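Q: I'm building a small set of examples for a reading group on sequence design. Run inverse folding on the following structure and report the sequence directly after it, with nothing in between.
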């Protein structure tokens, strides 16, 4: 029936135009309407006044409480080695002995002579009481006994020089000698460090000097022990400020009974300067624009962009000096998808700035 029907070009154009409007206009209108109804999900933080510690950060170097290099005092060969690398030793413990055969033999000889001299002194003393021996002979024998004792003291001192003992409790370093080696005065045997307490030396700017005092607590960290805090106390403050760096040296002691810290370690020191009671905000809430800082505040289901003035900072948090008031709901997560006036859906709320 329609086989012979023909459509004019005008009719075809009209149909095409209507189809284009349906294709382009109606879906776009529906999409815009859907967009107008969508809500951006966000996480907010309720800002409030809370403690905000102001800290000083510095780099320090760990040092042993006591530290020496054990060396020989005389020339001789090593007769015995009584320690291994890294041994924990006590004060007075014998570590090494040099060849002392000659000194021991000399000491034994003197001891025999002294015992004989004492017997003679006793005999002469008894004779002198009976006037059978002169006072001069008694004096000479007494002098002989004293001389032998003095000689024994000298040999004993020489024997002590042939022994190396630990002068204090500590941890030994790497052994530098072997049995039979010839040592000379000053030759290194090993090191000894008392690290039960570690001294931490660091410097701070002279501007912070009024805020530090002996006995003040410090906290330190080391890359060797991620996440672990080592606490200590300031034990001394230098009497002079470095005229070049304008910094002042500080020393703190850290209890190191576990022997984790070693001399020479680089440590990051955190020293609490003061604690402010102020508005605190997570740093990730800030939206920087040129040299200004903004935040998005949720008001009646929409966000309002506000400029804020940031004061002190610490890792992850900032002090807000102006621009916000206590109780404001500030967007923490989702700021990149927001504009001033955007409708939002609050997923969660945080009340703790820490």
């Amino acid at each position: 029936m329609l086989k012979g029907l023909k459509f004019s070009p005008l009719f075809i154009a009209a149909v095409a135009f209507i189809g284009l409007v349906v294709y382009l206009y109606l879906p776009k209108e529906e999409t815009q309407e859907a967009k107008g109804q969508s809500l951006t999900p966000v996480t907010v933080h309720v800002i409030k006044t809370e403690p905000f510690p102001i800290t000083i950060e510095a780099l320090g170097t760990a040092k042993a409480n006591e530290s020496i290099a054990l060396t020989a005092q005389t020339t001789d060969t090593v007769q015995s080695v009584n320690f291994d690398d890294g041994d924990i030793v006590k004060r007075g413990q014998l570590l090494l002995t040099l060849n002392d055969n000659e000194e021991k033999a000399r000491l034994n000889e003197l001891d025999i002579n002294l015992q004989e001299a004492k017997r003679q002194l006793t005999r002469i003393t008894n004779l002198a009481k009976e006037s059978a021996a002169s006072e001069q002979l008694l004096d000479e024998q007494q002098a002989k006994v004293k001389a032998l004792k003095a000689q024994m003291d000298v040999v004993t001192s020489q024997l002590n020089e042939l022994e190396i003992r630990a002068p204090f409790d500590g941890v030994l370093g790497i052994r530098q000698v072997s049995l039979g080696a010839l040592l000379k005065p000053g030759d290194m045997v090993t090191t000894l460090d008392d690290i039960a307490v570690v001294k931490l030396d660091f410097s701070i700017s002279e501007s912070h000097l009024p805020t530090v005092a002996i006995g003040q607590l410090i906290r330190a960290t080391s890359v060797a022990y991620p996440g672990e805090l080592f606490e200590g106390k300031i034990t001394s403050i230098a009497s002079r400020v470095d005229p070049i760096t304008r910094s002042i040296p500080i020393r703190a002691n850290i209890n190191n009974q576990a022997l984790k810290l070693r001399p020479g370690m680089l440590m990051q020191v955190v020293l609490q300067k003061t604690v402010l009671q102020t508005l605190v905000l997570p740093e990730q809430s800030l939206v920087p624009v040129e040299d200004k800082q903004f935040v998005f505040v949720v008001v009646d289901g929409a966000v309002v962009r506000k400029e804020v003035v940031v004061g002190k900072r610490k890792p992850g948090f900032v002090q807000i000096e102006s621009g916000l008031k206590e109780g404001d709901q500030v967007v923490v997560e989702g700021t990149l998808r927001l504009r001033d006036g955007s409708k939002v859906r609050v997923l969660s709320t945080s009340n703790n700035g820490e």
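The two ends are 83 Å apart (CA to CA).
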